[in-house]
Amino acid sequence: MARNKKQQQQQQQRPPPVAAGKPPTPPKQPAVDKRDPLTMSADEVSARLEKLRKRARFLDACMYVPCTCHKVKFGVESMLGLVPIVGDFAGLILAFLFVSMICGKFHTPASIKTQMVLNIAIDFTVGLVPILGDIFDIAFKANLRNMALIERHVERQRRSAQAAEMGTAAPGVKAPASAYIPRIPIKKGATGRVLERAAA
Do residues 184 and 152 touch, judged by C-beta distance below 8 A? Predict the structure, then answer.
């Protein structure tokens, strides 16, 4: 009886037989998000950001007002805004297309998407006011602000990942500067320096 019980236990512990000619299927690997900046090289991140910068400049800072030493810049969206109503809606469509382009290049959290939509809404609402709205559009630059948001998000993600990898390092030790993507200057309480960098 004891021998029969041992045999039954051994049979229960044995793995189920594998069908001939069919190797066991390996476990599925989690899908890699190609828009995650942590899965990209620094060169790829910089290239994607540069494409977005060019589009933002085209919309908000591809031309300048004469006699201002290139300091007062405006873009295609501001030009469209000169056409009442129709131009404002055309600029609105271009702004949302730019946000869609950003989300296609990088994984964008819902909180940042909300800020981007808020920037567009402010720009569109005030832009409906004749003359004053056009001046506000040149100064506000919603697309460059949205560009600054995604740049800060990408840089924050990569720096956090690098800090986590060096968690075992001695206090005060930093990762080499060459490992970082180009740093985006941030001015607390305003976006002035960010916009200057993006529009340069």
Answer: yes
